[in-house]
C-alpha cells in the first residue's frame, strides 16, 4: 500500500529548472532519500510535497488523499528545514510547542508531549534557552523535536545535516534514523551527500537535471547503476569508466567497474597497463589513483603490505563478471553483471539521450 | 624615555586619541558645548544695554511655569505626539507589511509611500496649504461635492492642531515604513514556511513571529518619532505660524519665537533645557524598559 504517491509531477519556471516527469511511490514507514547534485531539483521536489510550491503538472497523494491543491498545514506532515527555521525570539520549549499552541492542543497534553520529545532528543535542561544560545547540533535537535512533537505520519527533511561538522553529522544521522523508527515515521530526506543517503535510507531516489535518474535500494544503486551518471555519482571513489574498445567491447560501450573489483598485477599481465598517479593511505589499505588514456576515474585498493611507487606502470585486471556495460551513446546500462543475477533494475525513461519512447517510470513498491 | 615599552604605549595612546578625535571634536562643538551653554544661559537674566544680564538662578524657570502659554504649548505638543506617533507607527507597519508581500506593483507602492519623506518640508507644507485653503482648497472642494459647509481647517483653533497632525502622519509614516521594510526583509522566509507547515494563520504568524522580531525596529522608530515630535517647526512656519491664538503652537516654535522674535534668550534657553531633560528621560526609559522585552539578534 502506497503512502505517498507522486504522478507525473512537474514544476518549471519559464520552461526550465525545477523538476519534470516525477513518478514516485513509497509505502508507510519507509525512509526515502532524494539524492542528487546541487541544482538537480531535489529541494524543489520536497517543497512540492510539502505544499510550499505548487506543481505545474501532476498529482500528489498522501495517505490516499489528493493533496495537490491543499496548503501545507492540511497535508498532515512535518518538516525540518536546512536552516532549521527556528524562531529566534522564542525559547526552545516555545519553539517546539509552537505548532501545538497554534492547533490549540490542551495544556496538559502539550506538556506531556514536550517532555517526551525533549527526552528523546536529549534537550532536557535547555528548555528556556534561546536558539542563539545553542550550538549547531542542539539547534538541529530543536528542529527535529519540533517536527517530532507534531506526531504527523510524514516527515520531510531538507538537508538537515548540511550545517553540522562531520563528526556531529554522523551522530545526528543515527539519531534521525532512531527517531524515525521509534515514531514509525515515513521520512523523505533530501541530501546531496551520497553517504547519508546510502546509510539512512530504505529507498534512494537519484535525481539529475530535474528528472529521476534511478530509484532503488542503496544496494541496487551501488551494484547496478542505471546510467553512467548514477555510476559516477555513487561510491567513494565512484565507478571508473573505461572506453569499450580498450577492453574488446566495441565502440558502442563504456565499461564501468568498481575500484574494489580491480586487481593490480605486474605490468603486461593485466587487461590494461596503467600509471600510478597518486596513493592514499586509508588505514586498512591503500587507494591508488590510476591513469589510462581510455579510462576516467580508475582506482584500485591494495593491501598496505604491497609497495607501490608513484609514476610506476602496473597492470590491472578488470574481471569480466564485475564489468557493467553502458551504452556510450545514451549512457544507460546495457548489460547486467553476471555475478549479480538477482539484481532487479528498472532504468528510468529519463536520460540525457532523449530519443527513446516515453515509457512511464515503474514505482518501486515491490522492492520494499 | 627611550624605554621601548613606554614608547610603544605612548604610540598606542596617540593612535587612540587620533581615532577618537573626529567624533570628540564634532560632538563637543555641536552637542556638548551648546548644551552646557544653554544651561548656563538659562540661569542668567535677559541683558539689555542698560541692564547687563545678571545671575538669577532658577527665576527664568519660575517665570516659565507661571506663563499660561507655555502650558498651552506643552499640552499642544503632548497631544501632537500622542496622536501622531501611534498612528504613524501603525500606518508605517501596515504599509510595510503590505508593501513587503508579493505584489506585482511592489516597487511602485514602495516608491509612492516613500515620496512624502523625500519632499522638502517646506514644499510639503505648501502642498497641504493648498489642500487646506478655505473655500477653494482641495478638501473643501471635495466637501462641497457632498454638500458640506466649507471649513477653514488651519484658521480656527478647534481644527488647526489636527490639521498639523495629519500633515505629520502623512510625512512620517512613509519614512518609518522604510525602516520596517528593511527589518522585514531580514526575517528569513523559511520562518514563514515553518509556521505555514505548523498550520499558523497569517495573523498568528504576524502576531507571534513578525511583530516580536520587529520590536527593535519599533523601539528605534519610537525614539525617533518622539524626538521628531518636539523638533517640528518648518510646517508651522508655512501652515499656521502657531495660530490661531496659539492653538497649534508647538514647543520648538515657541522656543524659536522667544529666541529670535522676542530676543528673550534666557527663556528660550530654559525651555530648551526642559525639553532636553524630558527627551533624555523618555529615551532612557524606553531603552531600559523595552530592552528587557525586546529580542535582539
TrEMBL record, chain A:
<dbReference type="GO" id="GO:0055052">
    <property type="term" value="C:ATP-binding cassette (ABC) transporter complex, substrate-binding subunit-containing"/>
</dbReference>
<keyword id="KW-0813">Transport</keyword>
<dbReference type="InterPro" id="IPR003593">
    <property type="entry name" value="AAA+_ATPase"/>
</dbReference>
<comment type="similarity">
    <text>Belongs to the ABC transporter superfamily.</text>
</comment>
<protein>
    <submittedName>
        <fullName>sn-glycerol 3-phosphate transport system ATP-binding protein</fullName>
    </submittedName>
</protein>
<dbReference type="GO" id="GO:0140359">
    <property type="term" value="F:ABC-type transporter activity"/>
</dbReference>
<feature type="domain" description="ABC transporter">
    <location>
        <begin position="4"/>
        <end position="234"/>
    </location>
</feature>
<keyword id="KW-1278">Translocase</keyword>
<keyword id="KW-1003">Cell membrane</keyword>
<dbReference type="InterPro" id="IPR027417">
    <property type="entry name" value="P-loop_NTPase"/>
</dbReference>
<dbReference type="GO" id="GO:0005524">
    <property type="term" value="F:ATP binding"/>
</dbReference>
<dbReference type="InterPro" id="IPR047641">
    <property type="entry name" value="ABC_transpr_MalK/UgpC-like"/>
</dbReference>
<dbReference type="Pfam" id="PF08402">
    <property type="entry name" value="TOBE_2"/>
</dbReference>
<dbReference type="GO" id="GO:0016887">
    <property type="term" value="F:ATP hydrolysis activity"/>
</dbReference>
<keyword id="KW-0547">Nucleotide-binding</keyword>
<dbReference type="InterPro" id="IPR012340">
    <property type="entry name" value="NA-bd_OB-fold"/>
</dbReference>
<dbReference type="InterPro" id="IPR003439">
    <property type="entry name" value="ABC_transporter-like_ATP-bd"/>
</dbReference>
<dbReference type="Pfam" id="PF00005">
    <property type="entry name" value="ABC_tran"/>
</dbReference>
<feature type="region of interest" description="Disordered">
    <location>
        <begin position="346"/>
        <end position="368"/>
    </location>
</feature>
<dbReference type="InterPro" id="IPR013611">
    <property type="entry name" value="Transp-assoc_OB_typ2"/>
</dbReference>
<keyword id="KW-0472">Membrane</keyword>
<keyword id="KW-0067">ATP-binding</keyword>
UniProtKB/TrEMBL annotation, chain B:
<feature type="transmembrane region" description="Helical">
    <location>
        <begin position="268"/>
        <end position="290"/>
    </location>
</feature>
<comment type="similarity">
    <text>Belongs to the binding-protein-dependent transport system permease family.</text>
</comment>
<feature type="transmembrane region" description="Helical">
    <location>
        <begin position="78"/>
        <end position="99"/>
    </location>
</feature>
<feature type="transmembrane region" description="Helical">
    <location>
        <begin position="209"/>
        <end position="227"/>
    </location>
</feature>
<feature type="transmembrane region" description="Helical">
    <location>
        <begin position="111"/>
        <end position="131"/>
    </location>
</feature>
<feature type="domain" description="ABC transmembrane type-1">
    <location>
        <begin position="74"/>
        <end position="284"/>
    </location>
</feature>
<dbReference type="InterPro" id="IPR000515">
    <property type="entry name" value="MetI-like"/>
</dbReference>
<dbReference type="InterPro" id="IPR035906">
    <property type="entry name" value="MetI-like_sf"/>
</dbReference>
<keyword id="KW-1003">Cell membrane</keyword>
<keyword id="KW-0813">Transport</keyword>
<keyword id="KW-1133">Transmembrane helix</keyword>
<dbReference type="GO" id="GO:0005886">
    <property type="term" value="C:plasma membrane"/>
</dbReference>
<protein>
    <submittedName>
        <fullName>sn-glycerol 3-phosphate transport system permease protein</fullName>
    </submittedName>
</protein>
<keyword id="KW-0812">Transmembrane</keyword>
<feature type="transmembrane region" description="Helical">
    <location>
        <begin position="161"/>
        <end position="183"/>
    </location>
</feature>
<dbReference type="Pfam" id="PF00528">
    <property type="entry name" value="BPD_transp_1"/>
</dbReference>
<feature type="transmembrane region" description="Helical">
    <location>
        <begin position="17"/>
        <end position="36"/>
    </location>
</feature>
<dbReference type="InterPro" id="IPR051393">
    <property type="entry name" value="ABC_transporter_permease"/>
</dbReference>
<dbReference type="GO" id="GO:0055085">
    <property type="term" value="P:transmembrane transport"/>
</dbReference>
<keyword id="KW-0472">Membrane</keyword>
Amino acid at each position: 500500500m502506497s503512502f505517498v504517491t507522486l504522478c507525473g509531477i512537474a514544476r518549471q519556471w519559464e520552461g526550465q529548472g525545477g523538476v519534470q516527469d516525477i513518478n514516485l511511490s513509497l509505502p508507510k514507514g519507509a525512509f526515502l532519500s532524494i539524492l542528487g547534485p546541487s541544482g538537480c531539483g531535489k529541494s524543489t521536489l520536497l517543497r512540492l510535497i510539502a505544499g510550499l510550491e505548487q506543481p505545474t503538472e501532476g498529482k500528489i497523494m498522501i495517505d490516499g488523499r489528493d493533496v495537490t491543491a491543499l496548503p501545507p498545514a492540511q497535508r498532515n506532515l512535518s518538516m525540518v528545514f536546512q536552516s532549521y527555521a527556528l524562531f529566534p525570539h522564542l525559547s526552545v520549549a516555545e519553539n517546539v510547542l509552537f505548532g501545538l499552541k497554534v492547533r490549540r492542543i490542551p495544556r496538559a497534553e502539550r506538556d506531556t508531549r514536550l517532555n517526551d520529545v525533549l527526552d528523546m532528543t536529549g534537550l532536557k535542561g535547555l528548555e528556556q534557552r534561546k536558539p542563539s544560545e545553542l550550538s549547531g547540533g542542539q539547534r538541529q535537535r530543536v528542529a527535529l523535536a519540533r517536527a517530532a512533537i507534531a506526531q504527523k505520519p510524514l516527515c520531510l527533511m531538507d538537508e538537515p545535516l548540511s550545517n553540522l561538522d562531520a563528526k556531529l553529522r554522523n551522530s545526528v544521522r543515527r539519531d534521525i534514523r532512531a527517531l524515525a523508527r521509534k515514531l514509525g515515521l515515513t521520512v523523505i530526506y533530501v541530501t546531496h551527500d551520497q553517504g547519508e543517503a546510502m546509510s539512512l535510507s530504505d529507498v534512494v531516489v537519484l535525481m539529475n537535471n530535474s528528472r529521476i535518474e534511478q530509484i532503488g535500494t542503496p544496494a541496487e544503486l551501488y551494484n547496478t547503476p542505471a546510467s553512467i551518471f548514477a555510476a559516477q555519482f555513487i561510491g567513494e571513489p565512484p565507478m571508473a569508466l573505461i572506453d569499450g574498445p580498450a577492453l574488446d567491447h566495441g565502440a558502442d560501450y563504456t565499461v564501468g567497474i568498481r575500484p574494489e573489483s580491480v586487481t593490480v598485477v605486474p605490468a603486461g599481465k593485466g587487461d590494461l597497463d596503467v600509471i600510478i598517479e597518486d596513493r592514499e593511505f586509508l588505514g586498512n589499505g591503500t587507494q591508488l589513483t590510476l591513469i589510462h588514456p581510455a579510462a576516467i576515474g580508475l582506482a584500485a585498493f591494495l593491501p598496505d603490505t604491497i609497495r607501490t611507487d608513484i609514476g610506476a606502470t602496473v597492470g590491472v585486471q578488470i574481471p569480466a563478471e564485475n564489468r557493467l556495460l553502458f551504452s556510450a551513446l545514451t549512457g544507460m546500462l546495457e548489460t547486467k553483471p553476471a555475478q549479480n543475477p538477482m539484481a532487479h533494475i528498472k532504468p528510468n525513461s529519463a536520460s540525457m539521450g532523449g530519443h527513446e519512447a516515453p515509457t512511464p517510470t515503474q514505482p518501486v513498491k515491490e522492492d520494499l | 624615555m627611550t624605554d621601548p615599552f613606554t614608547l610603544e604605549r605612548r604610540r598606542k595612546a596617540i593612535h587612540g586619541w587620533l581615532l577618537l578625535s573626529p567624533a570628540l571634536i564634532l560632538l563637543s562643538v555641536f552637542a556638548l558645548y551648546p548644551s552646557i551653554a544653554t544651561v548656563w544661559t538659562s540661569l542668567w537674566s535677559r541683558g539689555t544695554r542698560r541692564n547687563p544680564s545678571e545671575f538669577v538662578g532658577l527665576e527664568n524657570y519660575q517665570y516659565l511655569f507661571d506663563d499660561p502659554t507655555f502650558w498651552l504649548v506643552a499640552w499642544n505638543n503632548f497631544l501632537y505626539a500622542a496622536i501622531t506617533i501611534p498612528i504613524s507607527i501603525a500606518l508605517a507597519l501596515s504599509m510595510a507589511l503590505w508593501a513587503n508581500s508579493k505584489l506585482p506593483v511592489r516597487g511602485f507602492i514602495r516608491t509612492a509611500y516613500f515620496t512624502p519623506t523625500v519632499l522638502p518640508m517646506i514644499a510639503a507644507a505648501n502642498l497641504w496649504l493648498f489642500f487646506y485653503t478655505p473655500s477653494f482648497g482641495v478638501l473643501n472642494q471635495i466637501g462641497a461635492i457632498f454638500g458640506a459647509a466649507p471649513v477653514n481647517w488651519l484658521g480656527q483653533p478647534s481644527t488647526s492642531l489636527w490639521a498639523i497632525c495629519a500633515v505629520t502622519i502623512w510625512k512620517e509614516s512613509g519614512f518609518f515604513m522604510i525602516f520596517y521594510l528593511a527589518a522585514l526583509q531580514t526575517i528569513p522566509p523559511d520562518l514563514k514556511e515553518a509556521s505555514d507547515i505548523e498550520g499558523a494563520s497569517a495573523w498568528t504568524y504576524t502576531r507571534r513571529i513578525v511583530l516580536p522580531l520587529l520590536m527593535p525596529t519599533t523601539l528605534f522608530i519610537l525614539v525617533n518619532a518622539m524626538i521628531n515630535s518636539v523638533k517640528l517647526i518648518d510646517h508651522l512656519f508655512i501652515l499656521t505660524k502657531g495660530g490661531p491664538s496659539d492653538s497649534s503652537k508647538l514647543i520648538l516654535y515657541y522656543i524659536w519665537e522667544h529666541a529670535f522674535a522676542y530676543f528673550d534668550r534666557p527663556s528660550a534657553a530654559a525651555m530648551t533645557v526642559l525639553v532636553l531633560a524630558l527627551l533624555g528621560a523618555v529615551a532612557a526609559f524606553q531603552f531600559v524598559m523595552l530592552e528587557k522585552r525586546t529580542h535582539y539578534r
